[in-house]
Amino acid sequence: MIKSFHPPLRTLMGPGPSDVHPRVLAAMARPTIGHLDPAFIGMMDEIKQLLQYALRTENALTLPVSAPGSAGMEACFVNLVEPGDKVIVCQNGVFGGRMKENVERFGGVALMVEDPWGEAVSVDKVRALLEQHDNIKALAFVHAETSTGVQSNAKALCALARDYGCLSIVDAVTSLAGIELEVDAWGVDALYSGTQKCLSAPPGISPVTFSERALEAVRNRKTRSPSWFLDKNLVMGYWGGGQKRAYHHTAPVNALYGLHESLVMLQEEGIEASWQRHMHHHTALRSGLEAMGLEMAVAADVRLPQLNSVMIPDGVDDAALRGRLLSDYSLEIGAGLGALAGKVWRIGLMGSSCSRRHVMLCLDALENALVEQGADVTAGRAAAAAAACYAESVA
After folding, report:
1. Beta strands 307-311 and 344-348: pairing type?
2. What are the chain's domains?
3. Digit-coded pLDDT (tens) for 245-254
4. Aminotransferase class V domain: which residues (predicted)?
């Protein structure tokens, strides 16, 4: 007979999900009510306001898609891209490739700007391509590339899109609440994110926001959106605001309780304080890793504080080491993807997984596992370097 599932207690320091705070888990255990219950509708309005705060936007169309970040991505493309539309897609990792596939699946033409994995999107390459083509519908790029740990210059890229009269579509799955993100100030037109990274809620919901320019494009489509579930003209009847709502789908009630609580916690901390916290603990982690003799895979000026790509030393068995961390320390770190598979580890410092306790545990466990494999690392210095970094920040 199959019995109840009881997962092991893990410390999640991979590329996501991150540790879910006990307050969020407790919120999800509250009584389920109907998705059209007046009390639930009131909470929906609060979620919208809290997401507007987190994204620094006043966009009326700001809501959580009832599906993970990949559906948020599809929601942006399926509403904005029509057959024949030309879309510039920037690829410097795995997730730019997924943008390309979305454009093509919905009949658009993807004009690619490709940069090496581990480097930021080249603003100059994007500008050159914009100058070569007329009637570009949108510019799509990943703000924080989870597969590499690189951040691109979203402010500059969105400004380019505006200058050349096209929309910007931004993947902010890993950037929301982890690094500076200014939807209105930067002129972002469509953006999607996820709940399981720096918001520290469970996976399964994708915040999205659309500017008024993007909404005009949705309203003026020549063809009907090929997705009924993700059609924003329909979804807004449910998420539009006020007490009168048109039934669209049965929202994931308890999951939205969790998102609400995580956003309340973010508001309590302050969005700018959250950005600073992620940088603060990244600095300590990086100091410890470098004291050990490990090398960061991404240049400092484009390095994500919340997703740290670390070069794997020669001779180290990647899978065996990550397996040892999981079995002996119940600690999860991420493997490399695509071109970086077997070359880097991806260490997440996101949301509730971004703390001094997480940094010190990771450094201790990683050092011990590397020494066991006979890796050429300097033992005994990582913790001291991280502690000195923390002491300096307090002084």
Report:
1. antiparallel
2. 20-268 (3.40.640.10), 271-394 (3.90.1150.10)
3. 889 999 999 9
4. 32-317
